[in-house]
Amino acid sequence: MRNYALEAEQQVIGSLILISDVTSPLVQRTLDTLNADDFVGTTNRTLFRAVCDFVDSGESYDMFLLAERTGIDLADVIELQSEVAGASNLTAYAKIVKERATERTATATLMDAMDRLRHGEGTVAERIALVEDALNGLNTLNSSGSHLVGMKEALKEFINDLEYRYENPGATGLTTGIKALDARFQGFKPGELVIIAARPAMGKTSVSTNFALHVGETEQVLFFSLEMPRKQLVQRMVAAAGAVDLSLLKTGAALHEQADQVQLGTRIVHNCNLKIDDTPALDVAELRSRARMAARKGPVGMIVVDYLQLLNDRTERDRFQAVSSISRKLKALAKELNCVVVALSQLSRKCEERTDKRPINSDLRESGQLEQDADAIIMLYRDEVYDEGSSQKGVIELITTKFRDGEIGTDYAAFIGKHNRITDLAFRPEEPPKQTSRRGFLN
Predict the structure, then answer these.
(1) N or C, which end of the chain has less CB nearby within 10 Å?
(2) Digit-coded pLDDT (tens) for 108-167
(3) What is the distance, to the nearest Å, from the Cα of residue 325 to the centroid of all Cα atoms in its chain?
């Protein structure tokens, strides 16, 4: 069987030699479409690199200069040019070279995936998840050419978005149901990683379940609960949705004493487009696999992870590196599925050693990578946890310590613990003193 890939490569190189014009649009397009690794033939690859060097430097080239630059015999270079009748089919030949290179890459990826499945570490499910990560990379192979976008196209996209925002004032992303927070963020945007961090008992799960219930009214939400069993999580959601006393739900007395509220809560939760996965000690690769599977059945608006430090990453042994890797992979998942990923995070005890116990970014546990990857970080603080005589009982502070696309600051909401419920406040509490160690705008 004839090697059409080599023949196409020779036609491409011969055409480039024939044109010998660094300003030619045809040459420029070819160099934008291909790279040296797309060529199988060693001589072809070497000559292509040389042409790229000449074009990048703006120097003229011909067959003699190419032979001198590469050390390839001049007769071989002349033969390549002589076999090309004309350069009119250069684009078509370049396309063939790119397709054959893509096929080789895909084949190598599949072979590597099979090897991982047969001989890799971990359970079968974990190995399948790793294979799926590898196969997912094949989706990018179909896009040939440059991914760079010119300012004309980028500006057009911006103007269209600006006009849309002008004609549709208000939040443009996923709202949380907390007016003050939604006013700050204008809704969380697809592709964003949002970290909600706090010490224990501050209300992380309460905030996340309220967010999930609100978003689930219009979008599909995936809730990965690594700490709390599904039954307990649903109980909290019913309490929040129907303003049911949690203590009465735990004993079953709510069916008698708050029957109407229970009915309301169960109806709201039933109609919510929300899926729960309560697998403990879940690996991040498996989480991504399950999220992709759900996305294939319908768009995902939000993914909630409760909480990040309970995720595993078998590719990293060091815990610090594992959390960093998990953070990067969750951010990548948000971009891949074009959804919002809300990851809950524990904080270190350092904040409790300060006079003002409100958390700051340096309190993030185990990894500064979280601060780097997150598009937004929201710290939770309830003064009554530390001060029984606090004047701000029933108030939860949502302290935005990082907002990549806006201003940081503190917003307030009502925290109704017995209902697992977060709602808007009817008043604005006194502002707490500012902490100068917080990082500022556009971090």
Answers:
(1) N
(2) 877 877 777 777 666 676 677 767 766 666 665 555 444 566 677 778 877 877 777 767
(3) 12
Q: Quickly count: other Cβ atoms within 10 Å of residue 417's Cβ.
A: 14
**Which token pair is 242?**
């129907």
Among 284, 285, 237, CA closest to 262:
237
How far is the C-alpha of 315 from the C-alpha of 121, rounded, in Å? 10
- Give 183-194 as a DSSP string: HHHSSBPTT-EE
Query: Which two three-digit tokens encode residue 98?
Result: 């790119």
pLDDT exceeds 50 at position 443: no
Residues in the chain: 443
Q: Which run of H or E residues covers position 105?
A: helix 90-119
Task: Using the structure block, give the residue that is written with the tokens 């420029």.
Answer: 28
What does the pLDDT average to over 52-79?
85
Residue 51 contacts by C-beta under 8 Å, 6 or more apart in sequence?
13, 16, 27, 31, 61, 66
Domain 1-143 carries which CATH code?
1.10.860.10
Non-local (6+) Cβ contacts of 440 within 8 A are 408
The 8-class DSSP code of residue 347 comes to: B
Q: Enumerate the domain spans of the chain.
A: 1-143, 173-423
First to last CA, the chain: 58
**Lowest-confidence region among 70-79, 138-147, 406-415:** 138-147
Q: Give the CATH number of domain 173-423.
A: 3.40.50.300
Q: How far apart are CA 101 and CA 40, in angstroms?
A: 8
Strand partners, 173: none
- In angstroms, the CA 324 to CA 17 distance is 48
3-state secondary structure of 84: coil
- C-alpha dihedral sign at 308, 375, 363, 434: negative
Helices (H), 252-342: 254-257, 259-270, 284-297, 319-337
Strand partners for 340: 302
